[in-house]
Amino acid sequence: MSTNTGPAPSGSPNLTVFFAVPNSAKALAYYEDVFGAEVIERFDAPDGSVAHAELALGGGRFQLSEPMPDYGIVGPPAEGNSFTITLWTADVDAVFAKAIATGSTVLTPIDDTFSGDRIGVVRCPFGIRWCIARHDRDVPKEEVDAAVAAMYEAG
């Protein structure tokens, strides 16, 4: 038994995202296959559904489970999301293409952006909004600010 104590368990970042999705077991397999996530731990409910799982991905971690409405934990809405998970990856085009080929819906086609990032946004088959991105170049803040202002002026 480890005696490590701290604000987070050993190996965990101090900020970890948690979300609930229906068909969590399938979601785990999808996130492993498409995004390269690794299941760190998984606890199943008596019926075999995922009560809690933690995955490592790209130097970070996230947790998920089946929705548990009795505890106020619900799945994503049928449309939209109040959050986006960003996955920074060296091969943004390949990961984006695999996400689409395996059931994700394109929300924003992949493109090179004014921020110096190559980005595409999808909604995975489990209802979560994922931004798949690669940072290609540093852009001076003044240029980014001007591009954002122009974007809002254009409507």
TrEMBL record:
InterPro entries, alphabetized: Glyas_Bleomycin-R_OHBP_Dase, Glyas_Fos-R_dOase_dom, VOC_core
Pfam family of the protein (one): Glyoxalase
Superkingdom of origin organism: Bacteria
All residue ranges annotated as the VOC domain in the record: 12-135
Protein name: VOC family protein
UniProt organism field: Allokutzneria multivorans
Lineage: Bacteria, Bacillati, Actinomycetota, Actinomycetes, Pseudonocardiales
